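tmp note - GntR family transcriptional regulator
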Amino acid sequence: MARADGVYESLRSRILSGEHAPGSRLPEEALSEALGVSRTPVRSALHRLADEGLVTLEPRRGAFVAEFTRADVDEVFELRGLLERRAAARAAVHRSADHVARLSELVEEMSALAAQEGSSRLDDLHHNNRDFHELVLAAAESPRQFRITTALARTSLTPGSFFDYEDEDIDRSVQFHRMISRAVADGQAELAGDLMAAHIGMAHRSFVERRFAAP
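out:
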């Protein structure tokens, strides 16, 4: 991974995990020192994140983590549930042998990560989860939906739900991914769609409970 991409991924994970809270300032100099890089890749990463809607750039003030309301989050999860239900159902019809094999690999990888400990565990789970959902979208053979849904997910805080998860939540996600993978492999379109919608719905509830809990 190129250094610029590594800085971008690192900053993105910090934002999604809540390490940099919504509304907080992202000073280039401090980030450069923390990441051990020059300000150039940090500046590039901040502009990429701004394009995705995760960061706001204000003249003469600098970069800030974008703020999302409960209504924003509810809307994104609702749209993801509708779109990814359709994608999972289509994937069960249009999937290839390679899609099926890779989905199974990702499920087993997630299961292994769930049993591990370490500082990178949640970040690794986050990337595994993203790869699984994007592979289901790819298997649906609907390029327009792939673009719309991945853009929707990547321009909100919702992909960061894994950073809030406890072991019980992670185990549940592993089981959902396993069932979705099997339904897709078996060509069970309605079941695959229903499972995906339920999976997104559970992630929505968990995210809201943790990120918008009463003080």
